[in-house]
Amino acid sequence: MAILEVKNIEKKFHNTPVLKDISFSLEEGNALAIIGSSGSGKTTLLRCLNFLETPNSGKIIVKDDILFDSSNKNKVSESELRNRRLHFGMVFQSFNLFPQYTALENVMLAEELIAKENPDYKNNKAEITNQIRKHAEELLTMMGLSERINHYPHQLSGGQQQRVAIARALALKPDILCFDEPTSALDPELTGEVLKVIRSLAEQNTTMIIVTHEMAFARDVADKVIFMDDGVIVEQGTPDEVINNPKEERTKQFLMRYAEG
After folding, report:
1. pLDDT tier, 121 (very low <50, low <70, confident <90, very high otherwise)
2. What pTM does this model have?
3. DSSP 247
4. Helix (H) or strand (E) holding 88
């Protein structure tokens, strides 16, 4: 069953097309890897899915619920926009942790903010906070950071910060976990730490979209691969089809350049 359907998404910046007629689907429990050169539209696509950018046209459907339809011109409220974003957990390239909060507090924050909107929060604050804390501790332990929960971001390595960011993205139990080149800011050793976590999530059938430049990782972990170039999907299929046996000339040229690099 498709948990995500993206239909004919287009996005322009100052009349310059960045995404052109993007359509694909993602099955629940599968991992989708998006590959392509810099400027191909990969990050913009993720930002549109997370409603950090608004597409100019198209549809985004999650669990048969239409989250975005360009034909609907009604203005979306901030609360509705936030509810749409809850379907997606986002892990950015540069971690984006709050420096004034510990690892534990970074992971707890979003859940606490949502809990405070509950009418029963004031009467049950201690109990609710303890539940949120326990959940955050479990996530950080899963990330191998049980001994770092009270450390601030500046006290953590880049790989540790990214693992905190992954725990934070998982805290609200999103339908789809999104990674925007999660290892691009890391050295090879720390890259291995983060990729190991993502592999583990894939083994647990976490539904994921991973923008990556790690071709071997994409080939091993993804159920489906999309190759983008100049704002279009040039080719999509299994890792064997797209990475090992590409049909399109642009895909072949990209993989050849990547291998030579």
Report:
1. confident
2. 0.93
3. -
4. strand 88-91
